[in-house]
Amino acid sequence: MGLCVMCTHCLSREEPVLLAELKPGRPQQYDWKSSCETWSVAFSPDGAWFAWSQGHCIVKLIPWPLEEAELGCRTIERKSCSTKADTRGRGGAKEKTLECGQIVWGLSFSTREQDGLQAPSPSCLILATGLNDGQIKVWEVQTGHLLFNLSGHQDVVRDLSFTPNGNLILVSASRDKTLRVWDLSRDGKQVQVLSGHMQWVLASRGHRNAAHTWPNPESIPLAFPRPSCGACDSALLVTASYDACVIMWDPYTGEQLRTLRHGPLHSALDYGTDIHASSLRSVCFSPEGLYLATVADDRLLRIWALELRTPVAFAPMTNGLCCVYFPHGGFIATGTRDGHVQFWTAPRVLSSLKHLCRKALRTFLTTYQVLALPIPKKMKEFLTYRTF
Fold first, then answer.
1. What are phi and psi of 11, to 5 degrees?
2. Is 376 exposed, middle or buried (0-12, 13-18, 19+ CB in 10 A)?
């Protein structure tokens, strides 16, 4: 797929195309307490691994990219097994099945450090899994070995986020109304507990060690532009609401910048779903931070340009629960209620020079610092995402 300069009209002609669908094979009986939903999917920051919460307490670790034969718009069945590593692999990397013992709700990758230096070896990649019973299990990706079993939460661990600088600080958010901070460099020591929320807590990943939380489940934070995916600032926060609205916020001032409403797109796409009763399930930023992908109960995958209030591309899908962009762009992975994973094409975009300058400045300037600069008002509005 070719590159194009940021252009809404160009993007609108490239609807997401289904490349492949992975379907778990289940040859054995599982505990009745388990469920089949894929609640979370994740790519490692370098794009070399894909983690799939496969349902039935299993996480599948798949070396990336998939083989060309698998990217042929067909369904591939992947059987779950109890071994740590499967025989299939490419370049020395092998698929692994992690038996977590509980339903897996959250996934987050990070890298380990050796002797104060970040090691390039894939053996230094780790994956944290948030479980239904409040436990957090941390695994070494290359070997599939369990490194830590973190205890403290009293309910489902719904979201996990590592700080992006490789210092092994993990933030977890739970339905027990607490946010907990863990230091894996100190044998998984719990270093802080943030409590006092009246409702479930969910966390959103941010830049420069920022983790933002919202106590109200009616407005769930789901996405920041992530530095590991190529977005270099934390000037935007996006939340998804149960009323099918996506809201863009300034995380420094708390100001609502824009609302994207999930309305009917076309009469031909009317599947009989009540759009007003349709819940948003997931939202994620594209790597360059100019577009969003959303998954909702109205059975559509949508792609939005931040400067617009209507989708610029969409594709029909069923039972969607989560979505994530590939770190280097080009496609989106979605998880479904049936435990499947689907991979969709996504247009590659070259950011404009002015957006690149904005990203560079917002890496180290807060909204308040931008507003204090002796520059024209229109430039301040652009740098603070009041205009695009």
1. -65, -35
2. exposed
Residues 249 and 271: their CA atoms lie apart, in Å, by 31
Contact in structure between 177 and 189 (CB atoms under 8 Å):
no
Rounded-to-integer distance, Cα 10 and Cα 312, Å: 9
User: The tokens 């789901």 sit on which residue?
Assistant: 222
Read off the pLDDT of residues 8-30 as tens digits, 9 standing for 90 and up.
444 445 788 898 899 887 644 55
Tokens representing 144? 């599939």
Residue found under tokens 């946010």: 179
Is residue 204 within 8 Å of 240, Cβ to Cβ?
no
Q: How far apart, in whole angstroms, are the C-alpha atoms of residue 255 and residue 251? A: 8
CA dihedral (108, 109, 112, 118) positive or negative? negative
Distance CA 321, CA 335 (A): 6
pTM: 0.77
pLDDT tens per residue across span 33-72 = 458 889 999 999 889 999 999 888 899 999 988 775 455 5
* Both structure tokens of 346: 């996504």
